[in-house]
Amino acid sequence: MEWSREQVEVLYRNVYGNDMTCPACGGALTRAPSPDADAFGVVTCHACDQQIVMSARNDPLRGRFRDFSEQEKKDLAAADRARRTPRCPVDATAMSVDVQRSLGRTSNVTMRCPRCTRSVAFARLHG
């Protein structure tokens, strides 16, 4: 049995939301690294005997992926200042935050969405 289009949409939403539940059977999903450098990983349901290589290029929402607006970039920086988990304005996925601290009074912050792969970078004052 192959996953339907609707099930693939739910699968992507589940995996990027850290819910490793198969949309078809409710079984546990596993994620393994992909040989493709730009892929999120290979997701498998052993109960359904199905797997998919998850990446931005085969994402059901890929037609909606776009660059962030200037206001969205400001909102992401504001979420960082408020110590809230930043959510991608395009697909609502929790963004990863990478902070490179410097010896000065600022840190360089890069937020990246694992789903649409868009990112924003800014300086955080006082670490």
Could you characterize what this model shows?
The protein is 19% helix and 29% strand. The radius of gyration is 17 Å and the shape is elongated. It has helices spanning 5-16, 70-81, and strands at residues 29-32, 39-45, 50-55, 96-101, 106-112, 119-125. It is of the alpha+beta class and 127 residues long. The protein folds into two domains: 5-60, no CATH class; 66-125, no CATH class.
Question: Can you tell me the overall shape?
Answer: elongated
Instruction: Give the end-to-end Cα distance, rounded to a whole number of Å.
Output: 51 Å
* Largest beta-sheet characterization: 3 strands, antiparallel
Radius of gyration: 17 Å
Strand order of the main beta sheet, please? 1-2-3
Q: What's the order of the H and E elements?
A: HEEEHEEE
State the domain count: 2
- Percent helix among the residues? 10-25%
* Secondary-structure content class: alpha+beta
The unreliable regions are: none
Mean pLDDT equals 92
Query: Tally the helices: what do you get?
Result: 2
Proportion of residues in β-strands? 25-35%
Summed up:
With 127 residues, the protein is of the alpha+beta class. 19% of the residues lie in helices and 29% in strands. Strands 1-2-3 form a three-stranded antiparallel β-sheet, with no helix packed on it.
